[in-house]
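Lab notebook, page 48
Experiment: co-folding of the full assembly
Goal: obtain a model of how the components sit together before planning crosslinking
Operator: M.T.
Materials (sequences as entered):
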Amino acid sequence: MTPSPTQTEERTAPPAGPGAAGPAADSAADSAAAEGTPPEESTATQPAEEQEPVQDAVFDLQDVSVRYGSFIAVGDITMKVPRHQVTAFIGPSGCGKSTLLRCLNRMNDLVPGASVTGELIYNGENVYAPDVDPAEVRRRIGMVFQKPNPFPKSIYENVAFGPRLNGFSGDLDGLVQQSLERVGLWSEVKDKLKESGHALSGGQQQRLCIARAIAVEPDVLLMDEPCSALDPIATLKIEDLIHQLKSTYSIVIVTHNMQQAARVSDRTAFFSVNIDDHQGMRTGRLVEYDRTTKIFNNPAQQRTEDYVTGRFG
Amino acid sequence: MSVITDQKPQDPPPGLRSRKRRRVADPAFRWFVTITGTSVFIILAAMVVRTTTEAWPIFQHQGFFGFLTGDRWVSGGSRSDDPADFTGVYGAWPFIYGTLVTALIAIVLALPLALCIAFYINQLAPRRLRKPLSYTVEMLAAVPSIVFGMWGLFWLVPNVLRPFFEWLESWAGGFFLFEGPVFGPGYLAAGIVLAIMILPIITAIVREVIAVNPMDQQNAAYALGATRFEVMRKVILPSSFSGIVGASMLGLGRAVGETIAVMMLIGSTKSWDSSLLQRGDSMAALIASLFKEATPEGVRGLMAIGVALFLFTMVINVAARLLVWRIGRVAGDAAV
Ligand SMILES: Nc1ncnc2c1ncn2[C@@H]1O[C@H](COP(=O)(O)OP(=O)(O)OP(=O)(O)O)[C@@H](O)[C@H]1O
Ligand SMILES: [Mg+2]
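Observation: model returned without errors.
Model output:
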């Protein structure tokens, strides 16, 4: 289950190279900018600590809590999600990873009873400000779901759906081809663009969904366990794709696969469930958030170590 | 199976053989299902054959085409079944027109409204109102048509429709569909009340079809920046298309076959006029109003109308299937 340290280094190091402003610059400027982020205060028994502050944040969360009715699913999340990097959310089932992910692009608005408190700043704008249009938020912050969900339309129409929706008036054929090429699906489907998207294999469908998401040229891509329904080969293809995409997109990925988190992400946030003794409420908390190498090799928290080494569910 | 074959080595072990109880029950069940299943066809066929034979002399007397296009209806008094003895004239066009026009008015008014109501209940209404609203719609679908007919005739026509028709006539009376004089009862009055009658059933079905639309596809559209309206129009409506056509056909079928309410509201004249404000009759209403006093020859005439009505609904159904099939093929819809 646990990735060997060498493997982790190997897989995460190369992609960091070209994007020079990435983690390397991050760590260099680390000590100088240490006062940039205030120290986290948390009501959790073990405070979430961020050792290395994020310099160029696409999301800045301040005390974000998400409720379903009166049930607090995740509480007091304070973190910054870096731009043009991959951030992984890991943690046991039910700790609110999907919930937090969905609230980043206001997909939670569609869940009855869901409400968000705290500040969620995306590129300097509060995503939950009253005059913000959720549809516009979602256009900029795309999402890929756990289960591949192509429309019952042709492959072409699937990819063209978003651009059409947003009034794209350029070379649609070119855009479809380019999007399919980016996910490595073009050569596999170029002769059957008119066929139903449902006629593809699961892995192809998931890549089609990613192509559909990037065809609207979003800024951020949120992925909720995008590989959980796929075989190892399809999974590797999608991981390669994530590596390629991060030069242009900021990616947040939820995964239950430790190796995957170690392989694809630059930063990892570990969430866990705190049980409130008075009400027995199970609230998800951010336990530790740091460079992925740190989380997997030298975590600051005992709970993180237990989880990533597989000693705790 | 015999004991000898059972002991052949290549046979499956005896544990896999079906038990006696199943060997008996299975064929019995199969027979039962087959008989009940086929009896539906037998009943249907018997009805069609019987009606058509009764009506046959009328078609011979009038010619099938003449029957459909003739615009005079006079029942004759002959007791024989020889078309040569018939004394009546049987032209069904006024009633075909009445049925066609009232049903079309009904569906044209009801379908868009039903879509809006279903969409409202499913997507926009406050959550705690959704259940009560959809129950109300379903309850309305069960209101007997005579109630609609009475309400239409004694309240809606004098209070709402007549003034509206007068306004319509003064404004568009030159157009052949809205020529006066205004009576109140007539094609349009019947069509509007029919629309109200079929609205609940169409709404109820469309609402159900919309409700089972897969959430994950809607989420996919939302995640691409679609608004609720866009999700409705581009995701839910296309994949609910066949269900919506089905609902419309059910509504249309009800409108075409509706007898009592139409009889009360259409004005019951045997002449016909293209203007929607005029009085006329429909096929179903004509049968209901004439069969009691009909002579044997007249009954045959009504049977012929029945056959035409049946053909009419069959054509509608086939057309609906073709539509679903074609659109499904064009849209690359895997659901069809
Ligand atoms: N639509 C909802 N309505 C009410 N409660 C919900 C809803 N969705 C999730 N929850 C609750 O919120 C908590 C967090 O759920 P969430 O799906 O975010 O967990 P997760 O970390 O993604 O789990 P998993 O790893 O199993 O996907 C859970 O206790 C869950 O029961
Ligand atoms: Mg989840």
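Interpretation: DSSP finds 13 helices and two strands in chain B.
Next step: discuss with group before ordering constructs.
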